[in-house]
Amino acid sequence: MRIDYYIYYRIDAAHDTALRAALAAMQASLRAATGVAGRVRRRLDDPLTWMEVYEGVTDQRAFELELGSHVLRHGLLGCLPPDAVRHMERFRAA
């Protein structure tokens, strides 16, 4: 089974540059570890809402462990507002 991940959250505009750098580094190392490339999107009507997209994950457990580890390793959470929550949604083909 292939799983697609959609992770969305609100950002603090003051940390936009730091977040972009942290995300780029995190996604590069995550891709090296899992082979899954990530993309970043901004909500069209609310540019402070960002989404990470990871498609075609075949090992859910391993991917989620790696994702959590890489988010922490690259300081991603430190670039978000204190009250921000990363919402994770998982989808598979119907």
Amount of beta strand: 25-35%
Multimerization status: single chain
CATH class: Alpha Beta
Structural category is: alpha+beta
Please report the number of helical segments.
Answer: 2
Largest sheet: 4 strands, antiparallel
The radius of gyration computed from the alpha-carbon positions, rounded to a whole number of angstroms, is 13 Å
Provide the helix percentage. Answer: 25-40%
Number of domains: 1
What CATH calls the topology is Alpha-Beta Plaits
Reading side by side through the largest sheet, how are the strands ordered?
Answer: 2-3-1-4
User: Could you say what the CATH architecture is?
Assistant: 2-Layer Sandwich
Q: Can you give the mean pLDDT? A: 96
List the defining traits of the structure above.
single chain; 2 helices; Alpha-Beta Plaits; four-stranded antiparallel β-sheet; 94 residues; alpha+beta; 4 strands
Question: Could you give the topology of this structure?
Answer:
Elements: E1 3-10, H1 16-34, E2 38-43, E3 46-57, H2 60-73, E4 87-92
Antiparallel strand pairs: 1-3, 1-4, 2-3
Protein described:
The chain is of the alpha+beta class and 94 residues long. The chain has a single domain, classed as Alpha-Beta Plaits (2-Layer Sandwich), CATH 3.30.70.100. Helices cover 35% and strands 34% of the residues. It contains two helices and four strands. The mean pLDDT is 96.
